[in-house]
# Entry
Amino acid sequence: MAEFIPFLMFLAACLVLMAGYPVAFSLAGTALLFAMVGTFTGYFDVAFIQALPNRLFGTMENTTLIAVPLFILMGVMLEKSKLSEDLLESMADLFGEFRSGLGISVVLVGALLAASTGIVGATVVTMGLMSLPTMLKRGYSASQATGLIAATGTLGQIIPPSIALVLLGDTLSSAYQQAQLNMGIFTPKTISIGDLFVGALIPGLLLVIFYCVYLVLFSRPAAIEHEPQSGGRASLSRAMKNLLPPVFLIVTVLGSILTGIATPTEAAGVGAFGATALAAIKGQLTFTKLREVAISTTQVTSMVFLILIGAAVFSLVFRGFGGEEIVENFFTNLPGGLFGATLLVMVVIFLLGFILDFIEITFVVVPIVGPVLLAMGLDPVWLGVMIAINLQTSFLTPPFGFALFYLRGVAPDSVETSDMYRGVVPFIIMQLFLMLLLSLWPALATWLPSYIYN
# Structure
């Protein structure tokens, strides 16, 4: 009976979440209820709950997590200062004369927006409001337009500096150290968020290239007349004026991390200050705007850390019921060894992506399966990149993909949900193909970090 309790606890948490209750309270509440019953029945040692204050204090002292509100502030400031809208308009003017030029502009702007916000919902909604009406007007079918926007919006999972990579990097760092301690290595190696950022660069760029090549080869916008574009020299000048500031900001943030000049937290501070400065230069830095940015940043940050607290309670109770040992024994005895265990974890994470956001999966699932897989020999950077792309694919897959829900909320009634489902299929295939490439050639994720830092 005792060996089934961790499984029942995980299943109960998923059911409570599907019922619509807030994530943080669902995780903590389910865990505490099981802990109370387990204490009375003798299956649970209450000392695990008594360790919670130390766990939370360690989280408060984790300076790496300070990067989270700073990167959120950077993204919200860029979004509300309308820099992304100006960028899309100028890029559309620049590429408008080419077939599929508008689609390529959407991909490039979406990639920059994903790098600056790092939040899937914000990117999908922003791109949907900005580009969907224009794409439909320029002759793109509803499936082409919605599929491209949804796929581009999910790039925030993989293109650094991404909030998903920040949280995933911190969690994997702890899991990697735990795996080494379990193997008797008492001077464990560490990985950093910077390692994961660098490891995600090549896969993220490959995905952008795949999208652009697909548009050039297969996109067939109808020949609908649109407004004449401004001259080439004027379009280029406008594009450079709107492109250079956000690109310079992103390059500065990433460059300072890659070169070792700044930690991710320090670089996030530079990004937040730079986004604020760009808004001021554009004349958008009003008191009302600052108030909106502060409120949005506080709301998102509070949600992240409240989920982190709920996940900490859940993981402690899960460990108290012996869940860690059960998972380890299960993976060790699984047919196929490391390959079978990795494949199973990827399938489970993909399915959980239908009902859980990346934050819950990062804080709940990764600490459970991460130490086991890493102890079996997986590279932590490769595992982090694979999880990020896997979740990106899950968020795009019908009928439960989060990106589709976000886009449905801003799409006009003339766009059918079935159009969106058809439109995302080619992009799902491209992302699965990228995961296959990473499985065959792990160096796509691991070579650049080892080259830069060694």
Remarks:
- The mean pLDDT is 80.
- Residues 23-35+45-453 form one domain.
- The two ends are 49 Å apart (CA to CA).
